[in-house]
Amino acid sequence: MRKKVTLKQLAKELNLSISTVSKSLKNDSEISEKTINRVHELANFYNYKPNALAVSLKSNKTNTIGVLLPEILNHFYAKVLYGIEQEASKNGYKIVTCITNESYEKEVEYVEMLNYSSVDGFILALSKETQMLNKLDHFKDLKRDNVPLIMFDRVSNEVDCDKVIVDDKDASKTAVRHLIKTGCKKIAVISTIFDLSVGKLRLEGAREEVSANRGVSLVELPINNIETEEKEIESFLKNNEIDAVLGLDETAAAIAINMSHKLGYKIPEKISVIGFTDGLLAKHSYPKLTIISQHAEDLGAKAARILLERLSNTSENSYKTKTEIVKTSLILRDSTI
Amino acid sequence: MRKKVTLKQLAKELNLSISTVSKSLKNDSEISEKTINRVHELANFYNYKPNALAVSLKSNKTNTIGVLLPEILNHFYAKVLYGIEQEASKNGYKIVTCITNESYEKEVEYVEMLNYSSVDGFILALSKETQMLNKLDHFKDLKRDNVPLIMFDRVSNEVDCDKVIVDDKDASKTAVRHLIKTGCKKIAVISTIFDLSVGKLRLEGAREEVSANRGVSLVELPINNIETEEKEIESFLKNNEIDAVLGLDETAAAIAINMSHKLGYKIPEKISVIGFTDGLLAKHSYPKLTIISQHAEDLGAKAARILLERLSNTSENSYKTKTEIVKTSLILRDSTI
DNA sequence: CTGAAAGCGCTTACAG
DNA sequence: CTGAAAGCGCTTACAG
């Protein structure tokens, strides 16, 4: 069982009251300088730290932000987390992170758990399963308890809260436009995330851009089963005379590159490839992948800033929620012409 | 500011005392069935949840484990985290994770912060900077406060605590033995982690195994600057007549494969490649990388189990610490013969 | 300048 | 069977 020095013990040893010790540690002007010094000295000696549980119980705030991520082996979320962490710690907030692993049940469980642990607010992206089932009741508790919530990336229209999203549709358009500009005529879109809000938007963008250009066509390869993704992409590349691939998630484009190697197709000479998310796979593919960067770190920082703002306005019990859109960038590397 | 129903409010509305309500919620046999039912009904209606801060303050335990990771964009640590999480949540424990980003200062800060937040125990791998500076004073606080600590993977001999490590030296030996068995004569070892305990052990293993085999030689490529890693590996491959590469961290082997593509070297025909860590890069390289798996998930679960055991033995204030070793496996894929 | 008292939301030994 | 009281470790308005 953990042991810690308390105000009580310091008070006893100094022959002072608990109140005086408490005030001294805050350098309260009420207290004589001499007493303040005595108290600090002993506190330092014992390495006294106030008990955070007691402080939080009293103040009704924990200075903690709960963060829920669908997945962590994903550079986008990992970087968002980093952005949140930076901004939060700059402002004296801690973060507690839970990974839902794309499970609705886990998401519900973690929201309850963190709410029960009295985090001051939430930042989260919905799990895949939650988006598919479209069950959002677990967020009503937060509303009822008056706990602010910021959703990012994977959001739901049915929850009224602040949101930070990426301009996914525009991003796809920009990518496709680049492919067309460099001479591609038959563009494949590979997606494992057609169930997600972001996947839908990205696909829509590609469709719109293609249909706005005469003589260019789109072939869609939706992948249901991650297990067979490689094989599906390989046979797709073999059986379709395409000259470009747009991968809508982090891995699809990388796999397209690998399968092209296998089939002996040159990149970018025969096939141009663009992916989403500036992650490890993109950096360590050969040739290096041209990608859409979602500026994950900025996005995280932005979400944190909005939350901190909500937390500082303790007065307003209800407020008008807002949605901010983060602009993406197309980063040209070696997998496109 | 968050609002929550409390025992007090329930008591008032039910015309009962706080004690009776509290006991009823726990189905205490002292209380009449009728009262218990009344209380539960209202509690359900209001969705009452006890305030975790108050419970923890009273019980002096938070059911929370603090986890410190050097890096998260690293499959090994991400999977260890997953293993810890599984085991912890199975036993009603939550985890709070902090990423040190290989910084000594951050590590000190987080240890203090989590200790101050009253986590029940710690599981951590040291940051690179901490291992280089070899400053370990921040763990004395934990000892003084009687908070159990489990170190894994990157550990220090100078801290007396439970440890879970990987048989890194044997792992390298096994890898090199396989290379030799398949006919490799001149083996390169590429390392960006020669400062780390694990990096040293892996290198040692490779050296020992090579010197035990006549006619086989080792070439070492230590890389100081991650920025120029690719170029260094490329020119190394060009200027050395090697027939095998052992990459001691997650990325080195992947880069070796990419640079081989660039130089037109066939894998595994001309060069065999083995890497450490069964991560995304290994899975999505072409050809698929033969790797040493450290069984990260098991390792995490094991660390959690040891900690939970320590936490359940509240009686013992001092105990004999132990070190457990997790066996690695060589997983043969397509980058070796 | 210092301290006693109330209170944050719980739990539990004790009294009735 | 129910409740008053003490206490976990703090903060702060109030009294002296």
From TrEMBL, chains A, B:
Q: Which UniProt keywords apply?
A: DNA-binding, Transcription, Transcription regulation
Q: What InterPro entries does UniProt report for this protein, alphabetically?
A: Cro/C1-type_HTH (IPR001387), HTH_LacI (IPR000843), LacI/GalR-like_sensor (IPR046335), Lambda_DNA-bd_dom_sf (IPR010982), Peripla_BP_I (IPR028082)
Q: Which GO MF terms does the UniProt record name?
A: DNA binding
> What sequence ranges are listed for the domain HTH lacI-type?
5-59
Query: Which part of the chain is the HTH cro/C1-type domain?
Result: 2-53
Q: What SMART domains does the record point to?
A: HTH_LACI (SM00354)
Extract the SUPFAM superfamilies matched here. lambda repressor-like DNA-binding domains (SSF47413), Periplasmic binding protein-like I (SSF53822)
Pfam families (alphabetical): LacI (PF00356), Peripla_BP_3 (PF13377)
Q: Which domain of life is it from?
A: Bacteria
Q: Under what name is this protein listed?
A: LacI family DNA-binding transcriptional regulator
* Source organism per UniProt: Aquimarina rubra
